[in-house]
């Protein structure tokens, strides 16, 4: 089965705000497990989820897994993404399109917070204290 992964972020008007999601895509690509690994955004900047879905379909994938790169289950996670995915399923009925839980719900998030607390970085000229 040829699987594509789409890491779906919010999108931002801020320059270079997509650096983190692009880095995540590069790391997932290193696993060399999926037919395609892409990123998409819901708002403000391309590529849109619709555009990336079409690009994945053009690569003849059988399954598309969308990973919402969100920390909380706000309106985008609970309403907007499910609506877009339902529309895509109707548009591409021969492809299995699924959505994982949002990143912030993953059980390793607490471990990440602990790791960050142990490795503070400078921000706004003030060194964090651990």
Task: Summarize the entry for a quick read.
By secondary structure, this protein is an alpha/beta fold. The chain is built from four helices and four strands, in the order E-H-E-H-E-H-E-H.
Write up this protein.
The chain is α/β, with parallel strands linked by helices and 130 residues long. It has 4 helices and 4 strands; from the N terminus they run βαβαβαβα. The chain has a 4-stranded parallel β-sheet, with helices on both faces. The longest helix is centred in the middle third of the chain and has 17 residues, at 75-91.
Helix content: 25-40%
Order of helices and strands: EHEHEHEH
Mean pLDDT across every amino acid position: 92
- Strands of the largest sheet, in order across it? 2-1-3-4
Shape: globular
Which segments are poorly predicted (pLDDT under 50) over 5 or more consecutive residues? 126-130
Distance between the termini: 46 Å
- The total beta strand count reads 4
Count of individual helical segments:
4
Question: If you compute it from the alpha carbons, what radius of gyration comes out, rounded to the nearest whole angstrom?
Answer: 16 Å
SS-derived structural category: alpha/beta
SS strand fraction: 15-25%
Question: The biggest beta sheet, please?
Answer: 4 strands, parallel
Describe the structure using short key phrases:
single chain, 130 residues, 4-stranded parallel beta sheet, 4 helices, 37% helix, 18% strand, globular
């Amino acid at each position: 089965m040829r699987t594509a992964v789409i890491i779906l972020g919010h999108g931002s008007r801020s320059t270079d705000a997509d650096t983190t999601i692009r880095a995540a895509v590069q790391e997932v690509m290193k696993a060399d497990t999926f037919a395609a690994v892409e990123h998409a955004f819901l708002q403000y900047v391309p590529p849109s989820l619709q555009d990336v879905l079409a690009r994945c379909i053009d690569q003849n994938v059988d399954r598309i897994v969308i990973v919402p790169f969100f920390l909380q289950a706000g309106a985008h996670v609970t309403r907007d993404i499910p609506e877009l995915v339902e529309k895509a399923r109707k548009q591409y009925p021969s492809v299995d399109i699924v959505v994982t839980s949002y990143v912030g719900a993953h059980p390793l998030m607490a471990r990440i917070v602990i790791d960050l607390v142990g490795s503070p970085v400078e921000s706004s000229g003030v060194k964090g204290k651990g």
